[in-house]
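User: Fold this; tokens only.

Assistant: Input:
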Amino acid sequence: MQATAGAQSAPKKTNKAKEYLKGWVPYRTKRYWLFGIVTVVALILPFIKINGNHFFLLNFDHKQLHFMFVRFDMQELYLMPFLLMLLFLGIFFMTTLGGRVWCGWACPQTIFRVIYRDLFETKLLHLRKRITNKQQEPDWSKPENKAKEGVAIVLWSILALIAAADFVWFFVPPEDFFAYIQNPGEHSVLMGFWLGLTLFLIVDVVWLKENFCIYICPYSRVQSVMYDEDTIMAIYDVKRGGHIYDHEGQDGHKLVNSVKELRAREPESECTACESCVKVCPTHIDIRQGMQLECINCLECVDACTKVMGALGKESLVRWTSPHEVETGEKTKYIRPRTIAYSVALTIVFVALLIMGTKKEHMLLNINKTAQLYRFTHDGRIVNDYTFLFQNTDSKDHTYYFKVENDKIKIVKPSKPFKLAAGKKAKKIVQLEAIKPLAEDTRKDTPVPIKIVAFATDDPEKIRVERNTVFVYPRWDIVQKKLKKAE
């Protein structure tokens, strides 16, 4: 009778577990999909161009910034502060909402370690027995394991070379990069940076491992100050699972080592003490000890506990939720003063960036006056000399000229418009002449403010810039003398 009853209860338990886990998709699977998307986007994005412009490119070689397929020259780098503000405010906002979700779901360091540890060492070369146990190191006393590790390092070195090149492509566009590496001797700085970054990625992923996240990455040092009670993270439910550690003490002393000890202390506790959540952690922490700086929100522990507790027909003891929800049972407040403040700040900065971006000048003009303030011609005319540096920042060729908004001054040189190819610069020596008296001061020379309006003759309404400079008019008594002498 007892055997029959046991046989009848087992299917019920199994069916309950199957029903509970029905449709469950592990966070690991979702992360792998996101890793693939992030990797593909990062590799393809540098090759995508619209009207010859990249989505993002900070090109020091050509002194240009490309952003959202619009090219800005170095004189227009007033956009950089807005981009940096967006970056940091975005990090603060993301951390306040989801903790170190960037670290576990999109950080290149995490993606690289998953490729090396889970794909190469575990799935491909079988150096590690299973993905779900990241604490057990391979037996390095076996020669075949050392050989396999060598293969893994070679494979990763090839990928590191590609990853380093991909990073460089956001500063040196691929079309220039592949041309430069054909003559490495002429581009030693580029080659050194590329190979140096490759070497760093090899050392980082193969030997530093997650120690980079724990001890080197500055993000882990500052994240805790951005947390509040509604920040979602991987949390062990002490109320349901039981106290594995002494949370009252300062040293995190472990109280129990087995389910038997736990049941003796807390009969209602649900933790099975299987330590699946510990074995799977890439940063080697025990989530049951509470929030720790080393946690990167990869949610591997949530998957592990969901599988174990799901087999018992129960909810996972480790969840991606907030301390507020665990403690009170109330829903996490995603809309709260801190997140509202970050949202408002991000919106303001983004709108300002869009407004500033629409004011892009399609031509640039720098005006420098020569050291000689003025000069007289042989017939007594007064001339000022300037150096005009024109730059065509548009995507097509244009013909340029300019005018002086002062009817007492005329342009002597250049005498006619000139053509300038897209993206090119031209230096022009400009001579302006005073055709009428500008001042009659006998005590000193007079700097007369003038406005220069430069424009594209083929599109003067759209391509037009204004610059202010001065025309130095000599003392009136000197002018009189020169005019009499010329007569």
